[in-house]
Amino acid sequence: MSMTSLGVSTGFMVGCCVAAQIARRVTNKFFKNEEGLVPTLFYEAIAAAELCACCFELIIVADNFGVAAYAVYLFLLTVWWGKVWGDASACPYTHMEDMLEGKTSLKEVALRTWAELMGGCCVYRIVQVFWWFEFAETHQGRAFEDCNADLQVNPYLGAAIEGFATLLCRLASKTLNEKGPKFCSIIDSFIGTSLVVAAFNFSGGYFNPVLATALKWGCRGHTNIEHIIVYWIGACVGAVVSVPLFKLPYVRNMLLGSEYKDKRE
Fold it and tell me: Residues 170, 239: contact at Cβ < 8 Å?
């Protein structure tokens, strides 16, 4: 495939990030920095739309330019999102973790998840129109073709992969947040991208129920129930387990080392 096609994909992803940043600024101006659930839902929907739009195009990159190119773009995008999303996560299990720690309510978890699903699923129409114009040869026939699932293993094994990798991601993020090393977000992005690539040929490496649903719900290769088991139950269980696991003295000592001992003293 030509570098022109890669340039078109790059331009689309950059355009999505710029549009999302403008939407955030408009939302911030409209609500005049007021705190509350409504602006939070807008920020979650915008983040989810940005995430899913870029990841739709990343599918094109992976299919035509390989997993290595996919990994580079995902890493750069993840670093960017870490800098501009603020408190938004575009991922429901982070809110579930907050609920377990008493930081939010079940109602807010449900509403944030709903906003993320709306943003992530509705943005596909914009992506579909862009693909329909076929500015690049890699977009030919992609706008209306049937999608195929990325799950290449047994659904229960897929759920275990998504769950275990999500657990590792969350433990890594929690550790980095407490240790606060230089280039923390870059390290976190590198770990997450590495785990995605490791799981890519097995479950797809989504580690985010909203992202998986927006991109692969109803695709050939798994039933809707199997999709829920792998991408919702698997990932959410992995994230939820990370909360009590990270509080265990042995785990904290292993991950935080001497810093944890100092805090105990």
Answer: yes
